[in-house]
Design the sequence.
């Protein structure tokens, strides 16, 4: 396994084409806007080095028997799934943001199932290709971007009917040694911190869409791939000198638009090729795994609850009954989210490939709550923080010889806290509820792994309404 | 194990002192008000006889190696805890009400832990006494009432300061062969359908309360015990001829006040005797188990969701988008409750006695949601059912030669349903949201196993706020 | 104006055909099931006699200049509308239930507008007919049932396509002296306590439905009208001797199915006859008035909040912070409902007829909240009340020489309250949240004056989305 | 009355001491960070010039009989109060942010009442002083900052017990011609755009705090006053070239810390001087007026709803049922807020001074909802907007010759919208839910005019619980 430092070094060797604020980024790893997101991924290596987290962060490969980072593992038991949930909460708490590596893990697991199932039907050899690829990922301890979301254009039309046929990623050429693809993947979390990019289709498809039914993996710096960096609320605070106003000192997340401009993929990296009827399965399984993965927000919730408690203590109000009650409510909601992720894990089941898949109904239930509760937790955090969180002057004012003394005088609250520390904790709450981390904690909680309505459709499909109706009729004496 | 019929027969042999509507009940088993609650307990025997439910309903005793009903089992693994959750959901769905037997199971499991722990400290032999008792319960396949809640009088005073010292159950005499107790236990679910009553203290206690720190088991018809039956919304509909208006044809629940008028308890039935410092542990463990047990409401929720879907179909509106969305929401909330019960089970842990205890934080989180979501599910059910549910004439009107034809004419809706069936399904929804079953599905969900505030206090105690604060401070650069 | 006693006497003179539990009711006024609902209507007379309520309960007729009961008034100003809101809250609080008289007031006001508008278009004389009728109602101080809701059969079909053409009320014969109608009106609140029944169509209609586009008024005991009484949760408690268990000692509400079996209506009582294009306007205006009328639930909420506070005091927990907070929340929600009813009143506007109509957008917003908040207020009331509310024995047990003393002993709580009074207040909370009054406070709040979706459709129609879109585009610099 | 241009010119004449990012601001009016907030205040002048808004924006002075801007008016009727609500909604919609001028209006009105009441008690002449001052404000058409919130230090201590006596603003010297004050006011909305600053105490006070019981008005550039500008989420986007990423093209709000460093106040500008027993009244009346003022957020809600609808249309999903339903819900919540502000206005009452004061119970209910619903509206807006809102590259990328074409290609959605316009509307939603305007729409909605708990305390105080208890007891037959 790589150390954190080796991970960082490995990224420096990549030749990524990244655009940010209209300019090509010369040094992606050290760019101050991007760097915090790399730090967060690096944590997934650093914690794996620590004995106290070994049980959660590492596991024995079912392929090689070697110790590997759990992010490259194919889940072999429900215990593996439960540990995944706990690992994600741990990292969310340690980083206070999106650490970006789960999407690749979820893509690998989903492909381990579907490549097997395709082979079963067609006698193809996708699964062995995939397992060779998996072994490479495990051996090199790589970060993979799991790239699913196409731009989608007119949402009411299937891929093949779009005005621009590239609005879903597709095969544009088929060669002896591989295929050429064109299109883009939007909202790609952690794309710039990845060694590999694993592409999957984004919806169920019919025969007419078969050119769009492709899945494959490429090095992130493959010829023809361009990354355009997404901007976030308060992103440029990371360019300011000083450290207080950025809230989170070290960590962040990012998303990017990834453009595939006629990119070549060799056949041994292709895991789905026009078997359109498997697109839906791949999407659903990936989505279910990824909906479980929102246990990470429980970890971010831990940070926000901790910050709120600190802010209350600094304000001297932590023993007031309504404050205590709000902290309880935040914890209650946060643990309810945890229950969802745990429950779909412990109810996981073995698939034909041997991979364990989460319970898909409960995974959708889990994610549906994630589209709601973080917003309420954030609201309560703002309630506890007080208005100062958004009316506080800049760090430069605190350091100003003209006005700094006034800020120190008038922003003194409880004697237990320095004004600077009070400012720091409020800036952290701002960061998670309005700033760069709010993108991950709120909006991504809404839309990541599928928008709320996507989960509702799955819930409707997966509950056994016939059984419920039958029981109800029986109890009230209806005979039909 | 007993069959359902043997269970019913065994109840007939009891000599219970029961009062209902001011009169002593001569035949408890066949009283039309009480009978449905017996039917619900009987289900716990009947399902255990069926092969398809064997895995959930039965288990191998760790004491005797024999096959026993899971309700008499001491959980030996987290898998046992998970199966408990699923068994409770199953029975909630099959009965559409409270089936009353889980409280005894939870009492047995809590005692298995605490008797062991007391012995560890004092070298006493409570645990072996308890295990002999347990073996008896398992061998005879008995229903136990777990009796915890004292009347409590003035809630701001501890037991020994109450104006009437009997407002908490206590030892009033200590003899060579046993002790004599006096007091009462309120809200006793399923008391009249129980062979045994297991008494526990209801709060943490200090030394001055030590006469109140007692736990023991007695036959339900022991000399000096009187039961006063609690009335429920719509209880007398069970006395009416006809079957439609009662909603649930067969099943119900009940609660009773149980008075102990100087009742003698032999020493081999005593499991806690004045070791006051263990009262709190016993209460908390019982409460945690019992908060998990609210998985039963997920089963009742299944019935209510099924009934709502049937009502929508009978009204011809089941394809309307807002109706579909409400059904999804009901399912989502219901499955969120299930997640809580599953999560605290799968995160259970082995206690010194070998018993597996649920995760107490998550058990409290589970129950806290149970104090909210059933009310919202019931509200949505009433939305879907329509106003007819509460304006519909009585069954006698449907059978009336004068007006029955008009009801059949004017209450015809979708051609797929007879008017009678439409009435039946609406009466079932009424039953669960306003009638006898609403007592269990709503009010008992609020207060059973502790009122909401009790869970909030436990949540506050059990989350690791120090860790959360530490993480938050670290992330924003606070050094203290 | 009539006194309460005169009102009761006037009802005795009616010859209503009423069926209850399958039998014809010989004496409607004194039937113990029905009586409490009459008492509630009677309150609308009794309070009008009292000087302290004169300002709210009475008003000067714009027709005759005489002092009349506000329930027979046509609103002449926004102040009238505001007083209507306050009168309804007052009566809700004084009765603790549905007092049934507002539906007729709302029908009169809606007809005052639409009859005028039809005449404007067709040169007909509906308005003068109506005003003569109104004068009669005012002079005699009558209670009118406003009958709108048809049985509706298959909800996906318009009236003329129903399998049974009578599922919406319609004209079946046109004579020189009047018309003959057939059909039924469901869910008729207070029908048996009414002197008059005013029929209106229930939906917008097209030309093919014109036989269904009728509005008229009849004496409630007109030949051919039959009432079939709707049963309510806990209705038969009113038949029990004793007074505690019924919760509300005096008052209740009722609904009935009203069947029109070829009933003759003279032309001077007809206010809409096949002018189908006015059906929608009449429905919408009536609905808007009636959605305002749900201010009555604020009054019932006052009772429930008061009862919860008393219960908390009797339990000795009224100073505990979470109890105080729940009482605040109940008040907050209740007053939010009041704000909605007040706001649509004070934003009312003059119609061509001179009648003041509430703001229809805000009236729908008001009612939409009524479909939610009473459920949450009821949930909080049950939280505060405690489980005893549903496990308490019957009044007969309290009076029993065998067990009464035990109940008095063990249900003693705070020394400030007798056990009987504690029981009384809990039975009142049960009455409003699960019993007869829950029908009005909960289910009728959901469906009365239109189910929630009906309001949502109206809200969608009435907000000015174009203006909002224009403003948004302008602010972000979109030029199209 | 001043025109918008005259207003801007008048600000240029002020000599304000403003610090921003640690530096003194040389030109406050043209500073790109501050400027949008000036634009928003300027709107209050510009709309007053337009005939279509004359009725809402202007009014006749009760002092001079001249036409004045409503922001300088003392409310003479409930109609005035209702128009205030509507003016605030209008301006919220026109600016999409906080327009800052209501706080001065609310201070003037609160002082008009309390100065009168003090005179009544003490025979002083505060009211005539105040009226002279008011006439000056009306004649000059001035913007006043209403400065209430002190830094407050340790929240558990009253002013006179604080470690630093300046943590509440106080009189430090009493001279023949006036007094000298020291302290600070935090969170001062619109301070830099004000001509005048009106200081009030922030809490009820006892005799020992009498030096803190002061109210007065000063020119905003009086000697000794310093402003330290509060930073907001995304504030520096206003420094970027380009216009898309700032979301709102023109308008914003601001808050500042205002330091009073031994500032002299002449007696004719002093409106409260140590009459400590009137501090509470002044605070409560100001708070009630200001809680009504949150009608402005309804206007911002209009913008957010409009933007969400536009985004849905650009995405081609505006006819999808769940999208329509979410728009309805946003409107419903928004109009519920409007109802609260209207209701407390129309229920206003005449005070001894002749001023009309809002109903204080309902004003608190109004504001309490404002601490909740905007968060839910914002959550729904993010749901509708989609994830692109937070993953979209910067405007510079759109203009980049390297990648701009790809953004235009892959972000094309519905043919009805250009990609640029799609970006614009999403940036506006980002602005209101995460960016500079989120400060006003969310956090200020939480804490402005008092944090949620402040309203809850007032609600508890102002409801008539005795009446409610009496009614409840009467209904269930309790006689005490």
Sequence:
């Amino acid at each position: 396994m790589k150390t954190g430092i080796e991970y960082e070094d490995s990224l420096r060797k990549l030749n990524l084409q990244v655009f940010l604020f209209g300019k090509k980024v010369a040094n992606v790893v050290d760019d101050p806007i991007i760097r915090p997101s790399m730090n967060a991924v690096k944590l997934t290596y650093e914690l794996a080095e620590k004995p106290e987290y070994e049980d959660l962060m590492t596991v024995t490969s079912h392929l090689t028997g070697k110790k590997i980072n759990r992010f490259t593992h194919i889940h072999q038991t429900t215990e593996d799934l439960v540990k995944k949930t706990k690992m994600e909460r741990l990292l969310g708490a340690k980083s206070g943001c999106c650490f970006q590596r789960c999407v690749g893990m979820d893509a690998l697991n989903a492909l381990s199932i579907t490549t097997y199932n395709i082979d079963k039907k067609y006698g193809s050899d996708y699964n062995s290709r995939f397992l060779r690829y998996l072994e490479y990922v495990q051996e090199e301890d790589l970060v993979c971007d799991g790239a699913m979301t196409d731009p989608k254009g007119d949402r009411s039309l299937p891929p093949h009917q779009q005005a621009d046929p590239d609005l879903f990623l597709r095969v544009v050429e088929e060669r002896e040694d591989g295929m050429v693809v064109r299109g883009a993947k939007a909202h790609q979390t952690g794309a710039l911190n990845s060694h590999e990019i694993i592409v999957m289709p984004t919806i169920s498809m019919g025969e007419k869409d078969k050119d769009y039914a492709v899945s494959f993996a490429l090095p992130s710096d493959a010829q023809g791939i361009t990354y355009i960096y997404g901007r976030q609320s308060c992103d440029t605070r990371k360019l300011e000198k000083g450290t207080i106003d950025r809230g989170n000192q070290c960590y962040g997340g990012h998303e990017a638009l990834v453009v595939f401009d006629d990119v070549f993929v060799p056949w041994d990296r292709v895991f789905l090729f026009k078997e359109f009827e498997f697109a839906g399965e791949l999407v659903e399984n990936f989505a279910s795994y990824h909906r479980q993965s929102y246990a990470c927000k429980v970890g971010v919730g831990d940070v926000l609850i901790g910050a709120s408690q600190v802010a209350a203590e600094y304000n001297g109000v932590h023993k007031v009954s309504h404050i205590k009650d709000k902290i309880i409510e935040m914890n209650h909601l946060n643990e309810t989210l945890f229950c969802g992720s745990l429950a779909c894990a412990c109810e996981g089941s073995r698939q034909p490939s041997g991979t364990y898949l989460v319970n898909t109904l409960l995974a959708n239930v889990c994610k549906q709550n994630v589209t709601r509760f973080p917003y309420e937790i954030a609201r309560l955090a703002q309630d506890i923080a007080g208005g100062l969180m958004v009316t506080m002057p800049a760090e430069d004012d605190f350091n100003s010889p003209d006005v700094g003394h006034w800020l120190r005088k008038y922003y003194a609250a409880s004697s237990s806290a320095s004004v600077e520390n009070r400012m720091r904790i409020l800036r952290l709450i701002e960061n998670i509820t309005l700033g760069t981390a709010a993108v991950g904690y709120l909006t991504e909680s809404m839309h990541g792994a599928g928008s709320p309505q996507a989960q509702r459709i799955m819930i409707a499909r997966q509950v056994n309404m016939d059984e419920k109706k039958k029981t109800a009729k029986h109890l009230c004496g209806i005979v039909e």
